[in-house]
Amino acid sequence: MNGFNVLTAGTVGTNPGTGWQIKGSGDFNNDGKSDILWQNIDGTPGIWLMDGLTVLNQGPVGTNPGAAWQIKGTGDFNNDGRADILWQHADGTAGIWLMDGMTVLNQGPVGTNPGPSWHVMGSGDYNNDQRSDILWQNDNGQAGLWFMNGLSMLNAGVAGSFNPGPEWHIIA
Fold first, then answer.
1. CA dist 151 to 1, 84, 148, Å?
2. Contact 112, 94 (CB under 8 A)
3. What whole-number distance in Å separates Cα of residue 84 and Cα of residue 156?
């Protein structure tokens, strides 16, 4: 793409099958090109390192955390220029894998478990420190933010003073 113009279109890679879903994209190997993040229904994550329509390298990454852990997004949580993987367990626990290409450099749960009524909605740099932070939403509609530095939560709190209610959902 170039803005709204399609420069080149086509299929990429080989069909991984119905058990795999695209969960996000990010530049995992710091080559300036977005890569594709996948997750299998059994929990296994995989990455396709991309160059346009060409898959340079592909395969599973890390150790399968199990189906109770779902990939919720990507972001550069440690400011190394490479996308990292943001996870959430069914019990509410958040986790991050700090990545270098298809290699997991460090991983672990982050912060304190807010419980299953809080859902990771995405990531972004909300405090302008060049590191991704975690955006949450409660079942009751309240938004929250965790300011991150790698695997460390620096600060957490509700976002704003207005709760739109449970009918409203963040799209990040």
1. 34, 11, 7
2. no
3. 20
- Quick check: 102 and 49 in contact, CB under 8 A? yes
Distance of alpha carbon 11 from alpha carbon 156, whole angstroms: 42
**Phi, psi at residue 37, to the nearest 5°?**
-105, 125
Q: What is the pLDDT of residues 24-37, one digit of tens each?
A: 999 999 999 999 99
| Secondary structure, 3-state, 75-144 | ECCCCCCCCEEEEEECCCCEEEEEEECCEEEEEEEECCCCCCCEEEEEEECCCCCCCCEEEEEECCCCEE
Model pTM greater than 0.90? yes
Q: Within 10 Å of residue 146's Cβ, how many Cβ atoms?
A: 21
| Residues in contact with 126: Cβ distance below 8 Å, sequence separation at least 6, in sequence order | 133, 135, 145, 147
- Give the Cα separation of 130 and 133 in Å (integer): 9
- pLDDT tens string 127-170: 999 999 999 999 999 999 999 999 999 999 998 888 999 999 99
Q: Is 3 exposed, middle or buried (0-12, 13-18, 19+ CB in 10 A)?
A: exposed
